[in-house]
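Ticket #300: bound-state structure for guanine.
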Amino acid sequence: MSAEIIDGKAFAAKVRAKVASHVARLKADHDIQPGLAVVLVGEDPASQVYVRSKGKMTVEVGMNSYEHKLAADTPEADVLALIERLNNDADVHGILVQLPLPDHMNEDLVVNAVDPAKDVDGFSISNVGLLATGQKTMVPCTPLGCLMMLREHHGSLSGLDAVVIGRSNIVGKPMAALLLGDSCTVTIAHSRTKDLPDVVRRADIVVAAVGRAEMVLGDWIKPGATVIDVGINRIDAPERGEGKTRLVGDVDFDSAVDVAGAITPVPGGVGPMTIACLLANTVTACSRANGLKEPEGLTV
Ligand code: GUN
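RESOLUTION: The complex was predicted; output attached.
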């Protein structure tokens, strides 16, 4: 039997529509326009693509987009000074510093310079601590998008066995905290995990965020399990012609789709949800900053 395909692209469009309607209400009722500032240091091509796409979608939902593009050799002190300025700018409700930063910068220092109330990535120590202790916070965008899709598919996640493959601060760890918050029994697996296929086979929910192309195979998946593939890996695709490439996830989709109950494709699964959740976090941050009711269904 073939798994249900979880359409992240369609779901992300619904989230963006909800954001847009909340933005319109903020403007009409309170004369407030949410603003998102993105700081990009250097010329990393993938980061440039993400930032362009973020800016376009920010404007599409009716928010202000402020882009700060700095040269790769910008001194760390200048980036910190810019963040300080954005922290104090009442028109800026969300600040995102695109990662990775150039090697000469202390990423922890820069990330933690962002005012936690404007930290729409949810990467600062205080927001991570709030998430870990089950308190209201800014939830990192990719895991938030994964949780939204899981809740939409399952309703309640209570009591389900979940395995998160990958222990990054951006995805694996916050994903595990969110699943625990929804009363799953959570295992965090990683590259050193013994008998990984057996660990994955126990799971009702598999979140693959390990960064290795097509590593999770169909015969690792418990029949009927829900598979969320966070991986975005570019691989050679000689079948499409010389020098051609294609995007694949961390899951071997072709074998997993025959075993899973539901699965996210790559592209078109988790990816579009990440930017939608960034916009959701920005409108949530703006509502909180103005002492207004938060939009429903856009955060946990
Ligand atoms: N680089 C890759 N993913 C992300 C993300 O979610 N946030 C930021 N700030 N940078 C990234």
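RESOLUTION NOTES: The chain has a mean pLDDT of 97.
TICKET STATUS: resolved
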